[in-house]
Design goal:
Length: 72
């Protein structure tokens, strides 16, 4: 019986369409925000890892250079 009322009443159709549009817009915005946050976190982690590796290589090279100068 409710289905018949929904078909007969155009305001319910309009309300449902508006609700669906708003829901889709909110979903898209949330998806974009989450995507941006994840992208930023991954970028930060990669930066940190690269920075650590570079520091380690520079330290190793400095240690090797100092050993070479001591050996001479």
């Amino acid at each position: 019986m409710a289905a018949l009322k929904a078909v007969a009443n155009p305001t319910i159709k309009v309300r449902d369409k508006v609700r669906d549009k708003v829901r889709d817009k909110v979903k898209d915005k949330v998806k974009d925000r989450v995507k941006d946050k994840v992208k930023d976190k991954v970028k930060d982690k990669v930066k940190d890892k690269v920075r650590d590796k570079v520091k380690d290589r520079v330290k190793d090279k400095a240690n090797l250079d100092s050993k070479d100068s001591k050996d001479k």
